[in-house]
Design a protein that fits this description.
By secondary structure, the protein is of the alpha/beta class. The chain is built from ten helices and eight strands. Strand 7, helix 9 and strand 8 form a beta-alpha-beta unit.
Length: 295
């Protein structure tokens, strides 16, 4: 485990000093450079026509029902975090995964308005819900998950010509929040859930509350959760200084609750020296390495 964390840190070291600007353009060299993966894309709109998705499908040379499939949120940023050398290593691993990077039809690395709506759960019964950080509309997590599992996944399976036996959902920050929401409310939707730096400050305590009754919702399934966090991350965007895990009440409370759920397998990893931004590429590469090893 430590070896893979060290590898992930080595791969993203040049990125650890800079925080991306909100209007940073997407730059994905893997779409221009040769590698052991072949990429194609497809586009579709949300049911209300307000959000426009671009999905990149990365395939190793051989694909079968036994090939794991990794769904990656913030697909534009996920594609930018990959490189040809990493893909070549994945392609020669025990179980090279299919990559499904679910992003947005935009030249930007992060589409903040769309992802804010898609990745945040609905709270209460209010018709209009606003994000506490950006004040843009929020609360569309279940609508997005319906699209992901009911529309995107069948399209991907049809294009691949397989019925995958193992499927993973990865997300970072708000994406990590969505991964947890999916696990806690739809534990049978995926086999593996990888939540990196989840925004637990968002409506603090919501994820712990959603965990109530999870054991009953499992209905015999045994999903796996990989929960990752950098030790230099603040407890919330407004925190003045980084908060260590020991002082992060929301994080500890969630872990304590999840560890008590029979049938749920939880692993928690802390990445030394990493803040919130650098955790995106580090957690993504670590997750894919573990998946490619059959772990």
């Amino acid at each position: 485990m430590g070896r893979w964390i060290s590898l992930a840190l080595l791969l993203i070291a040049p990125l650890a000093v800079a925080r991306p600007a909100p209007d940073q353009l997407m730059d994905a060299p893997v779409l221009r450079q040769a590698s052991a993966y072949s990429f194609s894309s497809l586009e579709l709109d949300s049911a209300d026509g307000a959000r426009h998705y671009r999905i990149w499908l990365g395939q190793p040379s051989t694909v079968s029902d036994a090939t794991p499939v990794a769904y990656l949120l913030d697909g534009n940023a996920a594609m930018a975090a990959l490189d040809s050398q990493s893909l070549d290593r994945l392609a020669h691993s025990v179980a090279p995964p299919v990559l499904v990077a679910v992003g947005y039809a935009t030249p930007l690395r992060i589409e903040r308005t769309a992802r804010t709506f898609d990745y945040t759960p609905k709270v209460g019964s209010a018709t209009q819900q606003r994000d506490p950080l950006t004040a843009v509309p929020s609360g569309g997590a279940d609508v997005f998950l319906d699209l992901l599992t009911g529309t995107v996944r069948p399209l991907i399976n049809q294009r691949l010509g397989i019925t995958p036996q193992r499927q993973l959902l990865w997300g970072h920050s708000y994406g990590g929040l969505l991964v947890l929401h999916a696990l806690l409310t739809r534990p049978q939707a995926f086999d593996d859930y990888a939540a990196a730096s989840p925004s637990l400050w968002w409506n603090q305590g919501l994820m712990t509350a959603e965990a109530n009754g999870l054991a009953q919702r499992l209905r015999g399934s045994q999903p796996r959760l990989l929960l990752m966090r950098g030790d230099q991350e603040p407890a919330s965007p407004g925190a003045v200084s980084p908060a260590k895990e020991a002082s992060d009440t929301a994080f500890k409370a969630l872990l304590g609750t999840l560890h008590q759920v029979d049938g749920l397998h939880v692993r928690h990893l802390t990445f030394t020296g990493l803040g919130h931004g650098p955790m995106l590429p580090a957690s993504l590469r670590y997750t894919l390495q573990m998946l490619s090893q059959g772990r």
